[in-house]
Write a structure and sequence with these properties.
Blueprint (H helix, E strand, L loop, with lengths): L4 E4 L3 E8 L11 E8 L1 H11 L4 E4 L1 E3 L2 H13 L1 E2 L4 E3 L5 E6 L5 E7 L8 H6 L1 H4 L4 E5 L4 H14 L3 E4 L3 H5 L11 E2 L5 H4 L8 H10 L5 E4 L5 E4 L4 E4 L12 H14 L4 H16 L11 H11 L3
Parallel strand pairs: 1-4, 1-10, 2-8, 4-6, 5-7, 10-11, 11-12
Antiparallel strand pairs: 2-3, 8-9, 13-14, 14-15
Helix pairs in contact: 1-9, 9-10, 10-11
Length: about 300
């Protein structure tokens, strides 16, 4: 079996309420609701597995019906759960409220138990981690767990990626040891909270992260596209112009596409093109996963969004 990508972090039930009209405060809003499997690490693992890449997910599930359902969804997609944890209690849930245009109005995270993914748990599963081609953790894990993974990465040479998720979990890593981190993937809201107050411009913030030892900083700017920075160069790429159905999971999908590109041996620019292509496809469907895509179909779509 080829070396898997190992994703460490959240697996949640996503309940998404889609407003049918512009949101009104302090009153009832008419909406439809969808239920899907979510959580950043789950989304990346699930999407990447559907694209034909071997994947392991290390996450926490409740021993309730939602937890059983989440596990079945993962296994059906081809995501292995050899080192995941099942705890007593409710599974984690992400409740998102979406504006009529598909953008996020607000969201709630409940019953997540990612604190159970400890350095001790990872040490017990060292043999599995040694098989990884890439290690990825979302910022819902503790700083101690992320720093253990970074130390493991430096020891073994297996690249480690940190996905900030959102502003609250990203804040934890403002003073964390990031020396040797292969890639961090903030958006324009998450980047400032990862840095000190003296870095008040985007370029200064990127430079600060690289001075702290981060090898690559991939800044996501929504409709404007993204920029991948390292000490040698900066790659910028515009986002495709599309109609958004649901913004959920677009960033996760982008990272899934990038990982697929790297797994296939592509360079940075082509991997970012693949990332944007997958993100655009996810923005066109409800939920965080583009279940309609195979690897072959996705690769064929890159020239559609990025013709020569």
């Amino acid at each position: 079996m080829p070396n898997p990508i190992i994703c460490i972090g959240a697996a949640l039930v996503d309940e998404l309420f889609h407003a049918k009209e512009p949101m009104l405060l302090a009153t009832t809003n008419d909406a439809s609701v969808t239920k899907t499997a979510g959580g950043v690490s789950h989304n990346i693992a699930h999407q990447t597995a559907l694209l034909g890449v071997p994947v392991q997910l290390i996450s926490v599930f409740g021993d309730d019906s939602d937890g059983d359902w989440l596990k079945k969804v993962c296994l059906h997609a081809g995501v292995r759960l050899d080192a995941s944890i099942t705890r007593k209690g409710l599974s984690g849930k992400y409740t998102g409220i979406l504006n009529a245009d598909g953008s996020l109005f607000s969201a709630f995270l409940t019953n997540a138990a990612n604190h159970l993914i400890t350095p001790e748990h990872l040490e017990k599963n060292r043999a599995l981690l040694l098989t990884a081609s890439y290690l990825l953790a979302d910022a819902n894990v503790s700083v101690e767990t992320a720093e253990w993974l970074l130390s493991f990465s430096k020891e073994t040479g297996i690249p480690f990626i940190l996905e900030p998720v959102s502003v609250p979990p990203a804040k934890k890593f403002k003073k964390a040891n990031l020396d040797g981190l292969y890639l961090i993937t903030p958006n324009e809201d998450e980047l400032p909270v990862l840095c000190s107050e003296k870095s008040f411009l985007t370029q200064l913030q990127v430079e600060e992260l690289m001075q702290r030892g981060v090898k690559n900083v991939w800044l996501h700017n929504g409709k404007q596209g993204s920029a991948l920075y390292n000490k040698e160069r900066a790659i910028t790429l515009h986002a495709p112009d599309i109609e958004v159905v649901d913004c959920t999971g677009a960033g996760d999908g982008s990272l899934s596409g990038f990982l697929l590109g790297k797994y296939l041996g592509w360079d940075d620019l082509d991997s970012v093109k693949l990332a944007h292509t997958l993100s655009a496809e996810i923005l066109n469907v409800n939920g965080a996963i583009a279940t309609h895509l195979t690897q072959e179909k996705l690769l064929s779509l890159v020239p559609k969004y990025y013709p020569n």
